[in-house]
Amino acid sequence: MVIVPATTGQMGILPGHVPTIAELKPGLLSVHEGNDVKKYFISSGFAFVHSNSYADILAVEAVPLDRIDPAQVQKGLSEFTQKLNSASSDLDKAEAQIGVDVHSALNSALTG
Amino acid sequence: MASTAAVPFWRSAGMTYITYSNICANLVRNCLKEPYKSEAIGREKVHFSATKWADGKPQKPSNFFFSLKLFPIVSICCFSRSRVWLRHAIGDSVCTVV
Predict the structure, then answer these.
(1) How many pairs of residues across A and B have Cβ atoms under 8 Å apart?
(2) What is the ipTM metric for this complex?
(3) Partner residue facing A102 (CB), from B27, B32, B33
(4) Of A50, A5, A55, whose CA–CA distance to A30 is shortest?
(5) Which chain B residue lies closest to A46 (C-alpha atoms)?
(6) Which residues of A58-82 are buried (b: 16+ CB within 10 A; e: fewer)?
(7) Is a pLDDT exceeding 70 seen at residue B64?
(8) What is the Cα gyration radius of chain B?
(9) Looking at CA atoms only, how far is residue A37 from chain B in angstroms?
(10) Is the pLDDT assigned to residue A91 strictly greater than 80?
């Protein structure tokens, strides 16, 4: 089973899943094979489930959790929270919001 | 019949999906431990050369080292892994991405 971080929420994919295209948000991807779980952090992307029970996960960056530096995550989170408060234009606000979203997702992936 | 689909915040701020996705990827890359961080940043570098044209003649081309980190909002789609030729006219200069 694969659990993907879709924009509409965490989605579990088992064999026989209905063919789906899901947009992914920054978050945790976990691949469960029996009792073995592999976790990756996805920056964003798409998940395609095909009718022959194959699923493709496309992501720009997919990193195993042990490659993430928690100190950088905390630093980024506080930096972007501050940017969000002081942002003026729509574009600045959007960029700061993206920063906050990505870093909080990284944070919960590391601590969850 | 007007579409009532909810628009993501970045779309309503004028950003495209590719820009959003690249910003997310850059942020994740910055939070990696070494040596993975330098590997990832090196992997995503795009080399391109921009040539300004005037009176139908090319001027001196300039070589660039394009790192997506420095230009979050860019109107060029750069595919660093696949060999995609993209000529995008920006005003009167033509940019060729290899």
Answers:
(1) 74
(2) 0.91
(3) B27
(4) A5
(5) B21
(6) ebbbebeeebbbeebbeebbeebee
(7) no
(8) 17
(9) 21
(10) yes
